[in-house]
């Protein structure tokens, strides 16, 4: 007899116990919203613009009402089911987009609202972005057009098992053979295996592979290494989905997040089958990692993406691109996009934490009791504690800082793309450097904010129902001046002047630059001993200053310093420029006032967090630091009544948040209970008899469960 476990009825809460005690969360959030000194809808329109909000209002109901986009059961699925759900979502989204005639911006909004990274993610981002930016007209017809029609599915294979950020150190090679007009791709060792490649494991049939190019145009026909360049490599048969000869591919297994994405590994080599006969397919697979018996994968000349660099098909002669970093174009776009995305990560985290902390009560304040309708003293809202405010308000103001800097980064990126189309590459280094430094700072800031907000939600933040624990796991992969200037004395009153913060952060960046150079040139410290300093201060001088004060090539090494300081300066600078000069913002006095408070808190909080460097640079005295810290406390109190209206202005819908704690209506506790009721384990009775091998309790013969299970 086949064992059939008993399914018990769903858990039901007695009706007389189904409502929370005390003032309901819905009422508490109503009270919070009544305190607003500005109209959240006005700020929302300023942040997003009417066109974007109209798109959201049009697209959101489509997603909410289609079963393929349902999020309610995701947390109860195992990894295989999550991957299948994600693939179904991807396919259905393409269908809906075609049915409703969505354009690229519509699809982007839909992806943001879905927030379910899945199998087609890299196809829609880095794969197609690379094909658009780095292909000839012929290659666009061969590769880009089919990709846009989803006739081929691609991924972007750069990272290797042994190399990540060091693109110049990639081990995969591509050697050109003029006699066959082909490129020979080879993974020379295990560490050359492409790794972490989204969509590669079970989905993609093509990959843009970054490989070290070798051309036979050296002295006497010798091979010359040309650096990393992108190649389109077919990896699966389009009909059977079987791997093509020479491609060893696998999913890399469970990860901390991204369960719907099949991150994969790729070796581009194959056995010389003429030398050996394999007894079975299984035998061949089992020997794939014996890399000393490899032949090579060959791809046609046209598969080398040649918008900028070219290899002559007959001679193999290499034509150098106008700028050596052109092949990094896709990564630069992604980094700029990450800065823009960070604002929503921060806003989303702050939304959940601020709404929940406005509903959650903890301890009564005996000195100033809060009462419920004149009855006994009630517990205080958690958001009233300044220690809590100091944890959950910074992510809110950081979101606004990233918003203005993200807009500026995309403006510069677009300027650079237009300039490059005309043969002008002067902006490329600025955009590349700025995007690199800001990506690092913003992802660290955003991932830290998710975790800080989750912790601020207490025990309920540990539940997947809270929406922050899984959000953190899915976002975590992103985690991967004049040195002679003299400090000017400042008084406490200057903390209300945006120019003070611009000067302060600029001075700190310059001081760190000078300090690092002194350690290198005067104290003769080795570069290895300066790595910590260089991490704090490397790679970025804000393009706004580079454009105003161009420097010679001899000065370039000096700019490889001060990353964090310059990136923070750039965030402060762009936020201040909006406060000082944005006409649309200044035309709304109430919104402008609250945004000025947000700017001051962002700048003061960041200065306080980096106080040791401001003190050591001489820009702040200990007394001024004390005044600065007092100003932070005053700003937290000033922002307190505006906190819920400010997160409302970000307009994160409940569908996006997928959080019982961050619900717009504040009905937190019933939502937590409903989440628990849906747990499949609650439908099973378990056998705890240590002498019985069965783990679950089966139905008794003749019981209703037995009869139903046999039907």
Automatic annotation (TrEMBL):
Domain Acyl-CoA oxidase C-alpha1: 328-480
Localization, UniProt: Peroxisome
GO biological process: fatty acid beta-oxidation using acyl-CoA oxidase; lipid homeostasis
GO CC annotations on file: peroxisome
Reaction equation(s) it catalyzes: a 2,3-saturated acyl-CoA + O2 = a (2E)-enoyl-CoA + H2O2
Segments forming domain Acyl-coenzyme A oxidase N-terminal: 40-153
One function term, GO molecular function aspect: FAD binding
Protein name: Acyl-coenzyme A oxidase
Source organism: Sporidiobolus salmonicolor
Taxonomic lineage of the native organism: Eukaryota, Fungi, Dikarya, Basidiomycota, Pucciniomycotina
């Amino acid at each position: 007899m086949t064992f059939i476990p008993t399914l018990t009825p769903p858990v039901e809460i007695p009706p007389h116990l189904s409502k929370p005690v005390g003032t309901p969360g819905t009422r508490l959030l109503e009270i919070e919203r009544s305190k607003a000194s500005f109209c959240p809808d006005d700020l929302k329109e300023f942040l997003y613009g009417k066109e974007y909000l109209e798109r959201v209002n049009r697209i959101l109901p489509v997603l909410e009402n289609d079963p393929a986009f349902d999020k309610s059961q995701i947390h109860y699925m195992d990894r295989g089911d999550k991957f299948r759900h994600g693939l179904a979502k991807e396919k259905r989204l393409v269908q809906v987009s075609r049915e409703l005639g969505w354009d690229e911006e519509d699809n982007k909004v839909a992806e943001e609202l879905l927030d379910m990274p899945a199998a087609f993610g890299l196809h829609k981002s880095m794969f197609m972005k690379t094909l658009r930016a780095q292909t000839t007209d012929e290659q666009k017809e061969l590769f880009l057009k089919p990709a846009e029609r989803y006739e081929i599915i691609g991924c972007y294979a750069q990272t290797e098992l042994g190399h990540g950020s060091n693109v110049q150190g990639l081990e995969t090679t591509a050697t050109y053979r003029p006699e066959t007009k082909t490129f020979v791709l080879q993974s020379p060792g295990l560490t050359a295996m492409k790794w972490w490649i989204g969509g590669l494991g079970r989905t993609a049939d093509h990959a843009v592979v970054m490989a070290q190019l070798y051309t036979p145009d050296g002295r006497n026909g010798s091979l010359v290494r040309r650096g990393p360049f992108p190649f389109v490599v077919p990896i699966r048969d389009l009909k059977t989905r079987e791997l093509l000869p020479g491609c060893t591919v696998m999913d890399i297994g469970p990860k901390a997040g991204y369960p719907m994405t099949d991150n994969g590994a790729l070796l581009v080599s194959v056995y010389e089958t003429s030398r050996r006969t394999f007894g079975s397919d299984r035998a061949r697979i089992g020997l794939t990692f014996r890399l000393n018996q490899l032949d090579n994968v060959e791809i046609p000349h046209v598969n080398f993406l040649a918008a900028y660099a070219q290899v002559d098909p007959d001679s193999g002669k290499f034509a150098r691109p106008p700028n050596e970093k052109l092949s990094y174009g896709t990564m630069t776009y992604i980094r700029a996009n990450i800065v823009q995305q960070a604002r929503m990560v921060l806003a989303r985290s702050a939304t959940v934490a601020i709404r929940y902390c406005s509903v959650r009560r903890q301890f009564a304040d005996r000195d100033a009791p809060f009462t419920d309708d004149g009855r006994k003293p009630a517990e205080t809202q958690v958001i009233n504690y300044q220690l809590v405010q100091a944890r959950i308000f910074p992510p809110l103001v950081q979101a606004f800082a990233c918003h203005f800097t993200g807009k500026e980064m995309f403006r510069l990126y677009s300027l650079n793309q237009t300039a490059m189309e005309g043969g002008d590459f002067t902006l490329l280094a600025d955009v590349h450097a700025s995007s690199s430094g800001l990506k690092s700072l913003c992802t660290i800031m955003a991932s830290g904010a998710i975790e800080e907000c989750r912790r601020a939600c207490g025990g309920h933040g540990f539940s997947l129902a809270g929406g922050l624990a899984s959000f953190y796991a899915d976002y975590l992969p992103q985690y991967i001046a004049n040195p002679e200037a003299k400090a000017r004395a400042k008084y406490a009153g200057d903390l209300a002047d945006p120019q003070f913060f611009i000067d302060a952060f600029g001075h700190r960046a310059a001081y760190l630059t000078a300090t690092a150079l002194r350690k290198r040139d005067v104290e003769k410290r080795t570069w290895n001993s300066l790595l910590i300093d260089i991490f704090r201060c490397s790679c970025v001088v804000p393009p706004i200053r580079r454009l105003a004060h161009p420097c010679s090539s001899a000065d370039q090494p000096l700019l490889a310093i001060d990353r964090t300081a310059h990136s923070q300066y750039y965030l402060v600078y762009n936020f201040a420029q909006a406060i000082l000069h944005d006409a649309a913002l200044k035309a709304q006095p109430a919104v402008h006032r609250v945004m000025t408070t947000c700017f001051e808190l962002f700048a003061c909080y960041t200065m306080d967090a980096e106080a040791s460097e401001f003190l050591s640079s001489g820009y702040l005295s200990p007394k001024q630091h004390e005044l600065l810290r007092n100003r932070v406390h005053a700003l937290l109190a000033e922002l307190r009544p505006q906190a819920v209206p400010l997160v409302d202005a970000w307009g994160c819908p409940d569908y996006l948040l997928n959080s019982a704690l961050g619900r717009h209506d504040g009905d937190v506790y019933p939502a937590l209970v409903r989440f628990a009721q849906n747990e499949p384990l609650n439908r099973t009775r378990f056998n705890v008899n240590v002498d019985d091998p069965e783990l679950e309790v089966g139905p008794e013969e003749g019981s209703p469960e037995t009869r139903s299970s046999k039907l």
